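Inputs:
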Amino acid sequence: MSLYMSLFNKKANQDDHIDRISDLPSNVIDGILEHLSIRDVVRTSILSTNWRYMWTSVPTLEFQGRSFLPDDHLNYPSPVVSKIITDVLMLHNGPIYKFNLFILYGCGFEITLECLNTWIPFLSRNVKHLELVNHGTYLDKMPYIVFSCKELTKFRFGGFNLSIPPNFSGFKRLLNLKLESVTFESGALESLISGCPLLEKLSIEYCHGFEYFHISTPTLKVLYLEFDENIKSICLKKAQNLSDLTLVASEGWVSGLIKSLPKNMQRFCIASFSDKKNVFADIIPPTLLKSSFNSIKYLILADVNLNERREVLYIVSVLKSAPCLVELVIQNYSLVDIAQPPDHSEELECRSCCLNQLKTVNIKICATSNQDAMSLIRFILATSTSLKTLTFDVGVGSQKLDALVLLSISQDLLLMKRASQRAEVKFLH
Amino acid sequence: MASSSSNLISLKTSDGTVFKVERALAKTMKTVQAIIEEADANIYMIPIHNVFSHHMDMIIDYYKLSVAGKSKEFSVEKLDNDELKDFLLAVHYLNMEDLFEVLTQAVADRLEKKSVGYVRKYFGIENDFTPEEYAAIRKKNDWAFKGDDIEPEEDEEKQEE
């Protein structure tokens, strides 16, 4: 083998004029060009007469803000930049399977609806993966022509108002849908989702204009939903295959917001950007916990307020409803001010609970919540018969605990009764 | 119809070496899969043209790393351009999707953001444009060519011809 390789080496070094790349099959060249930026792709047109139009069959086109322009890009006003994109699309020859247009806020590239109405027709017949993220200009409508891209399997869009055209026949092949910064006209979100019968993954971030989120897509497996204060109810029981659910509250929420959950969830995460002092205890009624959490393996509770006794009790009831739990993460990166002294006079009742699958626990909070976290840790250590590692990190935030307190925490942790002999407790500060 | 030692498939490379590979690895080669499926009887040995034993060695390396979840550790840096091209062609012939992505990305990495002159030299491509054609293409797509990554000397050379 090494003799063969060295023959190759000799050949490569000696003769610079043997073209080593141009005779590759065109779909191999397309495969290579797909990994290059649009700027490098177009530049290949000047390599040789052979290469002049080789790039025009690359099936992926991506334009990010003004990044494909030269350094003096400020000399290119937006209409000129738009024309560049139009020219590329017009020269392009062959199906475009993937098209991405990202315009981030502040990048100085403004597009018009007219631009989109010019560009989308080049894509609509074949495009499978389309990303249109426009945080540059406020555009008051998503152009209806986007809805005629029938082959879409992955669609991401953001920065538009969305209304659905009356003749919308759906995205019948769509598997993955991501919406960000979208304002929905009345009924638009429901119409969109019900037009996607094969949808498996749905993500909704920073969107407005919907009050009810009732999903009945049987194929949906993963849902990421960020919601604001205006939402009145969330019903997910008809999404029978939903196994991975993330709920993020950007503001507060109404009590009892979640009306139903799917039965076989494996992964659940809940978080909150809100400054308000809502507790998670309000969001999922206890009866729902018992019927929906019995398959949960991975649980992430972010932004929990451990200072509230009610919240700690709620977390315990969640754990009691999740006998299959394998991994638990509890975190709170924001400082919690102690309005009242924490009440941990009653120990948490452990006897009725056995978390015999729980292997990994990670609790990461700011220093001031440490005492409430301790009663929770005591509960977990006493009930987890298979526990391998519990990591307790109080290093969040600038407030540091003094050495004596840290020492007493370490000692308490060591003394806590453990149901699992192998359990390792790591204390980070 | 499975052969008696149904876990291993025999593949014979162009240089005559026989490799016994796991069925799971053979499955990642769509070309081989198609041959197996079309055969009515047991196939004892599948010839793979355009694939040499040193290619198979690397393919097996990649497969082992992927199975261990370490596919990111696979590197073709030590291959020169000819070797990389041949390997890419072999993987293309075998129709192996993941490895094809890895190799096309590797070639793209060698081309990325390089000047046109560099790319020509590196791959042995000869510039056969007339100076007028050359200037016209540059002008039409100046957004792609403007910048300090085009060597000015090259342009001047062409204009003098």
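Chain A touches chain B through 45 residues (CB under 8 Å). Flag for discussion at group meeting.
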